[in-house]
Specification:
heterodimer, A: 370 residues, alpha/beta, Elongation Factor Tu (Ef-tu), domain 3, 4 domains, 6-stranded antiparallel sheet, 18 strands, B: 397 residues, mainly alpha, 2 domains, globular, FAD (chain A), FAD-bd_FR_type (chain A), flavoprotein (chain A), Ferredoxin reductase (chain A)
Chain lengths: 370, 397
């Protein structure tokens, strides 16, 4: 089998597979469908990745190392990817930020996933992720990354599993021999909950310009104790107002940091990444929220009708056929939010899934690709 | 397909119909809740087998000058195309595997090894045929795709003496017939639409059919060098085998004796349960081996397919047991017979409907008289129209 991979690993082979001739031979299914018989990782259309290493660094996290295929175009430290895994026959997609340096030499991606016991994907990965597994990832997304040219002073603040994008920034900066000042203020319950504890100690010892401040909310052996406050900020870096600050963590931490920066009128120096946990409220019959039609940019206040009806009322002209859930003509991707099947009452809480707008009504805020 | 003078619909009370609909809804909910890994594994396994058959078929036909390779190549490629169209394409394009959320198995992304454009299919089949199943005047399939006389509700015309020929031709060129279906070209012949009206459909056809023909009739033959004519013939043979098989399977679904057609009026304001009811009355199952089930894309369970078009088709077999039991309890006819019987019944219909209906109602002489007097009646009808009288159309539908 490995000899057969010459088709996907040699330059000639790749040129053939990318050619319109190969596409014409493989019509209508595309080249991928046949090449994956030899090399399941290869794809022209999809970024596939092989899990090469699985580590459980803390009791409630799992760290995956991924070897992406040639479709992967890299990322900027701080950006996130959408990771798709198949659980019980259904592809589930979640956002995670790579924690590795963007200049990592072997080109692999490290994802550290905090396990949410009430969730679906993270407990599944904790229990089932094994080397050799194939997953799909999206191109890197998001504006949360360090601008070029680099600022002379950088303040990183994170809490819990929000450490991953700022860890990537820290590793990238040290990799690149950044000569400015880096201060990293990290919040955790106790020292056992700091996912990269050993590595942080190493970095601190190795690089003069890096200062690491550990704040523990449930223990008193850290550099700081309790939740974020202005005092913490000053203790971490008294020149914080001159630094560019990058923040990622749970909502209460984000809110209190934002409040301090707003009060001082330096919000433009604060860059943040929100990782809202998926909503799991049970929807009520009362129509609430906003329906966003992402492709067209239209918006409407949810009035409880089906998404198809609301799209039409908003002046859009989406495809439809039977309007009773049989024909699939109207199927669109729900990007975020919760929908209810009006025929069965089933609730769909997943993001990035196909739904039938003719029989789906929004429950609260929903964004759909129409 | 026959028209019942008194629709069986009257036999059940509205309350019974609703109760029957609820039982089917409950059955559906139970299956949907169970969809998962098993179904994903099934479709991936079928796709793997189909790909192997396809690669083997193409490779064998490369050496098509060698008769055993030709025979084996045509067999493998025919099976590949049949499985690709029936068990994979038809079913995936119904959204049966959309629950997997895998772009490769999502109806909107899928395309098949056939000349009909996927978008065109989603319209003519998934929407029109499945929503308005067997409603004469709405479901193009019910009236023989516009080129056959398959129900008495299509008025007789001397052209239908060729009904068996049309049927044979449509089966032979089935992939082209379905590809052209959305043109509704009989409307063009009758002057109801212009050449320009057909432009979007024509563009889709050229794009999709062009690619298919290029692959099967130019590129793969060219790769065989001097063996090109053999590869060409082998590919054409595989397409023909697929056409004959696919059309036979489809004919068995709605054309056998006993499958009912409906009028637009009687299906107005139809409830969800009545829609289920019509699907059962208008469809017919055929029995056969497991292989027949796979090669027919489980359309051997046409009734179950019409009830639940978006549930993975290989599950129809288990669903059929319950549907049959429900039908028995409500006294609803469940049309099921071995494949050869259903096909025989279809061909009987094709021949029977080629002659005027009076042949059967009033005797052969009356039929002959109706046929011979057709030109005069046509003239009378035209005169009547000129005089402003309301005249029933006596032309072919």
């Amino acid at each position: 089998m490995s000899r057969m991979k010459v088709l996907t690993s040699s330059r000639m082979g790749r040129r053939f597979l990318d050619s319109s001739f190969a596409a014409a031979l493989a019509t209508p299914h595309g080249v991928d469908r046949y090449v994956e018989m030899l090399d399941p990782l290869w794809s022209r259309t999809e970024t596939r990745a092989e899990v090469t290493d699985v580590e459980r660094k803390t009791a409630d996290s799992v760290t995956l190392t991924l070897r992406p295929n040639a479709s992967w175009a890299g990322f900027k430290a701080g950006q996130f990817v959408k990771l798709s895994v198949e659980i019980d026959g259904i592809r589930r997609t979640r956002c995670y930020s790579p924690a590795n340096s963007q200049f990592r030499r072997d080109g692999r991606i490290e994802l550290t996933i905090k396990v949410d016991p009430k969730g679906l994907v993270s407990p599944w990965l904790l229990a089932n992720a094994t080397p050799g597994m194939l997953v799909q990832i999206s191109p890197a997304q998001g504006d949360f990354h360090i601008p070029l040219p680099h600022p002379r002073s950088i303040l990183l603040i994170s809490g819990g599993s929000g450490i991953t994008p700022v860890m990537s920034m820290l590793r990238t900066l040290t990799d690149r021999a950044y000569i400015g000042k880096v201060t990293f203020l990290h919040y955790a319950f106790t020292e056992d909950d700091v996912i990269y504890r050993d590595e942080l100690a190493e970095i601190e010892a190795k690089y003069e310009g890096v200062r690491i401040i550990r704040a523990y909310t449930n223990a008193d052996n850290g550099d700081l104790q309790g939740f974020f406050s202005k005092e913490h900020l000053v203790a971490a870096d008294k020149h914080y107002a001159e630094a560019e600050t990058f923040l990622c963590g749970p909502m209460p931490l984000m809110d209190s940091v934002r409040a301090v920066f707003e009060a001082e009128g330096i919000s433009d120096r604060l860059h943040l990444e929100q990782f809202a946990a998926p909503t799991r409220t049970v929807p009520t019959d009362e129509a609430t929220g906003e329906l966003v039609f992402a492709a067209s940019g239209a918006k409407a206040d949810n009035n409880g009708q089906t998404i198809l009806e609301q799209a039409e009322a908003a002046g859009l002209n989406p495809d439809y056929g039977c309007r009773i859930g049989i024909c699939n003509a109207c199927v669109s991707t729900k990007l975020t939010g919760i929908t209810r099947n009006v025929l069965t009452g089933d609730i769909n809480t997943d993001n990035d899934v196909n739904i039938k707008p003719c029989i789906s009504a929004p429950c609260g805020d929903v964004s759909i690709d129409l | 397909m026959t028209v019942t003078a008194t629709p069986t619909k009257k036999k059940l009370s509205p309350e019974q119909i609703e109760a029957f609909g609820q039982e089917l809804d409950a059955l559906r909910a139970r299956i949907v809740a169970d969809l998962g890994e098993k179904d994903a594994a099934y479709i991936r396994d079928i796709v793997n087998k189909q790909k192997k058959l396809e690669v083997a078929g193409r490779a064998l036909l490369w050496a098509g000058w060698f008769p055993p390779a030709m025979l084996a190549g045509v067999t493998a490629l025919s099976l590949s195309k049949i499985i690709d169209n029936m068990e994979i394409g038809h079913n995936v394009m119904h959204g049966q595997y959309d629950f997997m959320n895998d772009p490769q198995f999502t109806a909107k992304n899928f395309d098949w090894d056939n000349t009909i454009h996927a978008d065109s299919w989603l319209y003519t089949h998934n929407y029109v045929h499945h929503t308005f199943t067997n409603i004469v005047g709405k479901d193009h399939d019910a009236t023989g795709y516009g080129v056959m006389r398959m129900t008495e509700e299509q008025p007789w015309h001397p052209i239908w003496l060729l009904n068996p020929v049309f049927c044979g031709l449509l089966q032979t060129f089935f992939q082209w017939g379905t590809a052209l279906q959305e043109f509704e070209s009989e409307k063009w012949f009758r002057g109801e639409q212009t050449w320009a009206d057909m432009a979007p459909a024509r563009k889709r056809f050229m794009e999709k059919a062009g690619k298919q023909a290029l692959k099967d009739y130019v590129l793969f033959p060219l790769l065989s060098g001097p063996g090109a004519p053999f590869t060409f013939v082998g590919n054409a043979a595989a397409n023909l085998v697929r056409n004959l098989w696919a059309s036979s399977v489809i004919w068995c679904g709605h054309f056998p004796e006993g499958a009912e057609t409906f009028s637009i009026e009687e299906t107005e304001d139809e409830s969800h349960a009545e829609w289920y009811y019509r699907q059962i009355l208008g469809s017919a199952n055929f029995t056969g081996s497991h292989l027949v089930d796979v090669l027919s894309g489980n359309l051997s369970y046409q009734i179950e397919h019409h009830l639940f078009p978006d549930i993975p088709a290989y599950r129809y077999k288990e669903i059929a047991v319950e549907v049959k039991e429900i039908c028995e309890r409500y006294g609803i006819r469940y049309n099921e017979a071995p494949m050869y019987k259903q096909l025989w019944s279809v061909w009987q219909q094709v021949f029977k409907l080629s002659l005027p209906d009076s042949t059967y109602t009033k005797g052969p002489l009356a039929g002959l008289r109706e046929a011979l007097s057709f030109p005069f009646r046509k003239k009378q009808a035209e005169q009547g129209r000129e005089q402003g009288h309301v005249v029933e159309a006596t032309f072919a539908a």
